[in-house]
Design goal:
single chain; alpha/beta; two-stranded antiparallel ribbon; binds zinc ion
Length: 371
């Protein structure tokens, strides 16, 4: 047996306080106060399911260290980082657009970004084969000058910069399968040919007017930004088709030295903030495709960082399938307990309009890559 899959979390990730609200809105007006959509629940239940099934014993636990101020400021402006800190030390508030900072969130956000960094170190130094980091707050919407969409510091972007700085990597690939567009990560590397960013997301979801296939990067970075907007209702078949037809050929030419995944489990069929139809098994299959890419090009070096996912019931099972695929170990959860109501949906059938969406991406990207 080779090296294990690593798992990283910290109790404080569940203490980042988004307060009350309903889905993404704060209470007030017609909105009755409830639990905010980005509550700790989904992620805590991932850890709980790992414990309950004892699958956690199959994984190598890695502890996060906080990111330094300097590491965060490689990716964000000093004034933005300072704003998050001030809010965190006073009343809390919005660090940008729908980016809630609770009292004490600053240190937790540093530890979340640091978790991504620690994960890169564990993989690069050969302590583990690959990693699943249960990072919270998430990061992929966070832009240079402001937080957005529940994201404070861009964990994956900060980790990519760390990988480049510490290990001298020249070709890092980031695959973002969160249902929302990874605008923050796109922003970080838009003119940068050393970081290939691929975002699979639901078209016309969030943020508005971002994530079009035509947004291919600029300057030296042209062709190194690959947006794959998929129509609402896309399920396992559409996601796998996009990966196999559009992403694998690009990876074969780019030859990444490390693959980072922004693993949002919100393309699931039960997610309240997306309209896609992925099942838990689909997440496992998607992970297997990415794992194969990593084995082919970079000795299996792969770090998955948790982003979104707002179905507390289903996210744990989706994440478990991701970790099973990463580790090659099957958990005791042999059947998806929530599959019943999904069984009749055409998740495993590729619809022609989904195929067409991928064809369009390939057409745009064929200016830069061979298919
Ligand atoms: Zn998301």
């Amino acid at each position: 047996m080779g090296m294990k899959t690593g798992f990283l979390y910290d109790e404080s990730y569940f203490w980042h306080d988004t307060g009350n609200g309903a889905l993404f809105l704060p209470p007030g007006g017609w909105i009755e106060a409830d639990e905010h959509g980005e509550s700790p629940k989904s992620k805590r239940r991932v850890k709980n399911l790992l414990e309950r099934t004892k699958f956690i014993d199959e994984l190598h636990l890695i502890k996060p260290r906080p990111a330094t101020r300097e590491e965060v400021e490689q990716n964000h402006t000093r004034s933005y980082v300072e704003r998050v800190k001030q809010l965190s030390y006073t009343t809390g508030g919005d660090g940008g657009e729908l980016a809630l900072v609770g009292v004490g969130s600053y240190e937790i956000a540093l530890l979340s970004a640091g978790g991504a960094i620690s994960s890169v170190d564990a993989v690069m130094e050969g302590e583990v084969q690959n990693m699943y980091a249960l990072t919270r707050p998430p990061g992929h919407h966070a832009e240079r000058e402001m937080g957005m969409g529940f994201c404070l510091f861009n964990n994956v972007a900060i980790a990519a910069r760390h990988a480049r700085e510490k290990y001298g990597l020249k070709r890092i690939m980031i695959i973002d399968w969160d249902v929302h567009h990874g605008n923050g990560t796109e922003d970080s590397f838009y003119d940068d040919p050393e970081v290939l960013f691929v975002s699979l997301h639901q078209e016309f979801n969030f943020p508005p007017n971002r994530g079009y296939a035509e947004h291919v990067g600029e300057g030296e970075g042209r062709g190194y930004n690959v947006n794959i907007p998929l129509p609402a209702g896309t399920g396992n078949a559409g996601y796998l088709h996009a990966l196999e037809e559009a992403v694998v050929p690009i990876a074969d030419q780019f030859k990444p030295e490390l693959i980072l995944v922004s693993a949002g489990q919100d393309p699931s069929a039960f997610d309240p903030l997306g309209q896609m139809m992925m099942t838990a098994d689909g997440f496992g299959k998607m992970t297997s495709v990415v794992k194969k890419m990593a084995e082919k090009h970079c000795e299996g070096r792969l770090v998955a960082c948790h982003e979104g996912g707002y179905s507390p019931a289903y996210v744990p099972f989706c994440s478990l399938r991701v970790m099973e695929a990463l580790s090659g170990v099957q958990s005791k959860v042999t059947e998806d307990p929530y599959y019943g109501p999904l069984a009749g949906l055409p998740s495993d059938i590729l619809a022609s309009h989904q195929k067409k969406a991928v064809e369009h991406v390939i057409e745009v990207q064929s200016n830069y890559w061979n298919f």
